[in-house]
Design brief:
Elements (H helix, E strand, L loop, with lengths): L3 E7 L7 H8 L8 E7 L4 H9 L5 E5 L5 H14 L4 E5 L11 H5 L2 E4 L5 H10 L8 E3 L17 H6 L2 E3 L2 E2 L17 E2 L2 H13 L4 E4 L8 H13 L6 E6 L6 H8 L6 E8 L3 H6 L6 H14 L3 E8 L6 H14 L3 E6 L18 E2 L7 E3 L5 H19 L32 H16 L7 H15 L4 H14 L15 H4 L11 H8 L3
Parallel strand pairs: 1-2, 1-3, 3-4, 4-5, 5-6, 7-10, 10-11, 11-12, 12-13, 13-14
Antiparallel strand pairs: 8-9, 15-16
Helix pairs in contact: 2-3, 8-9, 13-14, 15-16
């Protein structure tokens, strides 16, 4: 039993609630009276309420995010009916802005907006003493990071064995991109480096191999980012995997040297590009040097073993289908292993809404509040882009079809067609080609999810051979190479008539990256 229960609904079990661990770590003397219970959005709200009620709490602190607000609302509604005396305190980015319009806020007792690491402890002390603040919405001041207790001892053995371990070296963002909550004048602050490195060293000693840094701009403070990379280089061991979110146009020589020193598969960089249209970038207050960005991506792909995950956003104000396609093609030419095409979301509190009238931005009323149409992209086209993004993730990003995907626009990386007559769409736009494939795939499959890998591979083979008229033996050879790279030992039946016996018996390649998706890309690297 616990007087204070900290809880949230994670998107999946593999995700650990980083924010809750900060709240727990900073409860001070109240920590011994608190418990941390994590759930995921697939669990039934009443089952979650049952587990919470079993703790007989006085205060329940609930983290609310864009991915869990619907389920969290059902949990709070049921909890307040069953145990109306329990004080429900909300926190998190989804309830830090536009609180008056939210049903979950109406149901709860209090909301702490902003970074609540210290304010939540202060509120709990008052509530347990029988004091009830007069204001329902309590704004937390931005804490001094020197004052925070680091939460890394709260990752237990199960977390280390089964979940992603989140860490951070800084908070805040220096940029003002209007679609992002980090644009809201939150200053960039660095955690004291010595205690942070000590905590990271302790996690390494406890067996953590996968570190995901959540810093919005890891390479902003170059001295800190260089020191952290040096720290991990000095302690490198096989299986170590580090994820960083990087500013794409800031990669000086000193940082490049440290990045290049890591073995292939050890680093993953999430590189937020969002748009290559400079007029659109200016509209949303995004600043980046595209020449430096492209040079940095070429360096990462050509001279390092970094796994590059690059982001574009569809549906930005001023961005047309043609403009998005040009940017996508430009990014494909730079060769990142993954390109995530996200659909613009109207996050609560962000200034992107200032474009609603001029660009006729229409958003879904339900989370994740994705854009439905704009002045330049109508609803049917936006639906096509949603399918494009989903199928690109299934086919290109997944690593299952690394060698096969370029055949969709006539640019094979693994084999040449039997004759030049078989080469389709030479120099074609990857965006246009994949959009056509996406339309065809949706018509054939009738869905965007729950497509088994073998069926998907069969559909890819059918499209390439029947729609694009590639020679079947060529496609079979390339596709089987991909499937082997993913660890498959036997070719599917539809490929066997087109494969020589020697190819069927060939041993699969083994990737060296610790994560399956990244390993498949690594296995296909030249």
């Amino acid at each position: 039993m616990a007087d204070i229960v900290l809880t949230t609904l994670n998107a999946r079990y593999i995700h650990a609630a980083f924010g809750l661990r900060y709240l727990m770590a900073n409860l001070g003397p109240l920590r011994k009276r608190a418990a941390l219970l994590e759930f995921d959005i697939a669990q039934r709200p009443l089952d979650i309420v049952e587990a919470l009620a079993a703790q007989h709490p006085v205060v329940v602190g609930l983290g609310v995010y864009i991915w869990n607000v619907a389920q969290a609302t059902a949990v709070v509604a049921a909890l307040k009916r069953i145990l109306p005396e329990v004080v429900v305190v909300l926190g998190g980015p989804e309830v830090s802005y536009e609180t008056d319009a939210q049903e979950i806020v109406r149901l709860a007792d209090y909301v702490v907006t902003g970074e609540a690491d210290l304010k939540f402890a202060e509120l709990c002390a008052a509530l347990l003493a029988g004091e009830r603040p007069g204001s329902k919405v309590i704004a937390a001041p931005v804490p001094d990071l020197d004052d925070l207790v680091l939460p890394y001892d709260l990752y237990d053995e199960r977390d280390i064995a089964q979940r992603i371990v989140y860490v951070e070296a800084s908070r805040g963002c220096p940029f003002s991109c209007e679609f992002c909550l980090s644009s809201l004048d939150i200053p960039v602050r660095q955690f004291p480096l010595t205690p942070l490195l000590e905590a990271l060293g302790d996690l390494l000693r406890r067996g953590v191999n996968h570190f995901k840094f959540v810093d919005r701009t890891f390479n902003l403070n170059l001295a800190v980012s260089q020191r952290i990379l040096e720290f991990f280089l000095e302690r490198y061991r096989p299986g170590l995997f580090l994820h960083f979110e990087m500013i794409p146009d800031r990669l000086p020589d000193a940082l490049r040297a440290r990045i290049a020193a890591f073995p292939a598969g050890a680093l993953q960089f999430e590189v937020g590009i969002q748009t290559f249209n400079e007029a659109v970038a200016a509209l949303i207050s995004r600043r980046q040097d595209y020449r430096k960005l492209e040079d940095n991506l070429r360096f990462l792909r050509g001279q390092t073993g970094v796994h590059v995950h690059a982001d574009l956003i569809a549906g930005l104000p001023g961005e047309s289908l043609e403009s998005l396609g040009e940017g996508f093609d430009r990014l494909v030419a730079l060769g990142p292993q993954e390109i995530q095409v996200g659909i613009l979301k109207r996050l609560r509190g962000t200034p992107i809404v200032r474009h609603d009238a001029e660009w006729r931005m229409v958003y879904s009323a339900d989370p994740p509040y994705e854009v439905l149409s704009t002045r330049l992209i109508d609803f049917p086209t936006m639906q096509r882009l949603r399918r494009f993004a989903r199928f690109w993730d299934l086919v290109a990003n997944s690593g299952h079809f690394v060698l096969t995907t370029p055949l969709l626009w006539g640019n094979p990386r693994a084999a040449s067609p039997a004759s030049s007559d078989d080469r389709r769409q030479p120099g074609a736009s990857p965006f246009a080609a994949f959009l056509r494939f996406s339309d065809w795939l949706f018509a054939q499959a009738g869905r965007q999810h729950a497509i088994a890998l073998e069926r998907l591979a069969g559909l890819v083979f059918e499209y390439l051979t029947q729609e694009l008229k590639w020679e079947p033996r060529t496609v079979a050879t390339v596709l089987w190479g991909d499937l082997q790279g993913g660890g498959r030992n036997e070719p599917p039946k539809f490929l066997r008539p087109f494969l020589p016996a020697a190819q069927v018996r060939r041993s699969p390649r083994a990737g060296k990256a610790p994560l399956k998706r990244q390993a498949r890309h690594l296995a296909a690297s030249p």
